[in-house]
User: What shape does this take?
Amino acid sequence: MKTAFQAFFEVWGRGKPNQQMHHSKPAAKTVTGAAEYMKIVAKSSWPEKNATNTFDVQPEFSAEHLIVAHGFKSESHTVLSGDGYMITMHRIMRDLDRRYERAVILHHGILGSSEDWLLLGERRALPYLLSDNGYDVWLLNARGNKYSKTHTGKSAERLEFWDFSWHEMGIYDLPAAFKYISEITNKAELNFIGHSMGATALLVLLSTAPEYNDVLRSGVLLAPLAFMYHVKGPMRLLANFYSTNGHNSLNFLGQTEFMSSGTFPEQIVKRYCKGDKRSCENPMLLLVNGGSQLLETKLMEDILTHTPGGTSAKTIIHFVQLAKTGFFQMFDYGAANNVRKYKNGTPEIYNLKKVTLPLALFSSPSDWLATVSDIQTILPLLPNVNVHHVVKADNFGHYDFVWSPDAPDLVFNFILPLLDKITDSKKDSFFE
Assistant: This one.
């Protein structure tokens, strides 16, 4: 029997994909940062991009092992989501006895886990930089990945466990995590950093339950996935295939776990891999255009042994639906089932005007999934985007926001001063 990712790439290998369709989109406004933005960044002090890891990452190391090996204190916390999933969070601190007034939760991207944030090592990884600057750091693991595969009443061996997408991550997992962190930290100010799918989950929550805009202090969205009509690579091919062959055409992806770990067939790699063979054997890297040009050999070894983290097939299909339609919408079950689910033949559209949380967006022109065109679509729909930072680097791909050796200079160098300004100001005067 074919695995999900074998079927996925066999479809990719059938020939040249259909030409991409085009929607008529309104012109997007350009969002710029506040006047003090660059002044703050200029004053910040960050490690050199060539700083090396202080510990040799081992494939058998869990997130907790990595955190301790990199010189930090680690705790593992499990929180119960509103629909019964057991969500694991990893906490990072320098001092276990310190009472932190500022906290930040980091949500990984598509097919990822908390380990993704840690692979750059002590002097470069974003969670460690945040911890050293006084933040109580929490790394969330989405339902269905290697750390969050338990439910109070459903076995991960059964189909019903995997009946979720990033919609449920937003409406169930995030509220439970926010409440738990608030209780543990004695209501420390909570900020959110979401990469890729992590940003998607936050937008789902804030648009469907606007009261959570007041729970958080700020949101930083790295390569957010919402509008995806202009995606490239395998995701575009799947969207074209789905558009041409109908609603059930993606059944070959399966109905349970999409990618846990392993590689797909060597013959597919030989035929379609244009980069390093081993990186193409990792379906996660090939899917998102991992930007291997920017990755050191040792770092690539670490990435290959710690990814992918796993997710549901439905999660991937939901993203494919966004790429097909060009809208940021709930899951499409087909017209008849949509009527039962939504009282309408088409899925509901997420109302981004309800997302009033102060946001900073980061994007890259080389990103296959969060493309420039799609980022320009979302910007005018979000009422409180204070900064849109475009990474100035060639070949800076979707996951380079997390693990590129250049990420400290190109991305992290801008995040922490922004958070510092937010947490040191009143909510109605962010970025002024």
About this structure: Residues 30-230+332-429 form a domain with the Rossmann fold fold (CATH 3.40.50.1820).
